[in-house]
Amino acid sequence: MVDAPKYIWLDGKIVDYEKASVHILTHSLQYGSGIFEGIRAYETKDNSAVFRLDDHVKRFINSARICNIKLGYTHEQLFSAILNIVKKNMLKRCYIRPFAFYNDPNIGLSTEGKKISVSIAAVPFGSYFRNKDIGIKCNVSALRRINPSILPTQAKASGNYVNSILASIDAKNQGVDDAILISNEGFVAEGPAENIFLVNDGKLLTPSKEANILLGITRDTIIKIAKDRGIEVEERQIHKEELYTADEVFFTGTAAEITSIISIDSRKIGDGRQGKITKNLEKDYLDVVSGKRPEFDDWLTKVY
Length: 304
Fold this sequence. Notes:
Layout: E1 7-10, E2 13-16, H1 27-31, E3 35-36, E4 39-44, E5 47-51, H2 53-66, H3 75-88, E6 94-102, E7 116-123, E8 136-144, H4 161-173, E9 178-182, E10 188-190, E11 195-200, E12 203-207, H5 217-228, E13 233-236, H6 240-245, E14 248-253, E15 257-264, E16 267-268, H7 276-289, E17 300-302
Parallel strand pairs: 8-9, 8-15, 12-13
Antiparallel strand pairs: 1-2, 1-7, 3-6, 4-5, 4-6, 5-17, 6-7, 9-10, 11-12, 11-14, 14-15, 15-16
């Protein structure tokens, strides 16, 4: 395994990592008009596997359709390219970032006639949150989660994440690790780059799609793992006050994996430590992604 990636897949070719560059005036850099995906590969007993690759490629393609971006590549081509770039960089455990963007330096909002480029990077990646092992502290952001009347919430569009970035910056300026966003209707939505779950009386609660959340692949994974454990899961609108009275709260996401939230708005959640159900689900998740649960092997695509 190498310490850093040496190659990136760009427009159908493998190029040197340090030479993968675009013009400073590139449309998607100036206006946030790109789309992306976040995927992880994990080390397994068979060397390395990408987790839920098929689902991630589908979502990438769906994001492109929603944003009217003509990728120029099929599902099969993107699937294969992702595996190839992980293999080329000799990575066993990494984060993978497919990205489609308007690669054109001409100033102006119009996308007509602009070249669309697609890149795929694979980089070594550990924990997303510095305090993941002990749990993180959050606040409820003053910013509301975007909704489909403003931007397409079911697309992983670059511009959507300005909302998330500003909420996260504000949270850190207030001395906590991250933010929780509320929908325009006043219900709990999600974190800046994560879905959120609550545990109450042994039941798992998570915001439904009516809260304008991105329907995360890790979110779906946890719902299915929980049901396999016999845990009841309810998807519904959640009032902000329910965050404070929950027994446990945690984030899910490709980067965040399963991360306990131990404090919200200076209110301790449960006993202020990772709860039992969260701990069990995190263990299950890590077992699944590392190939220790054969019944979920359909979610793993071998790299080597």
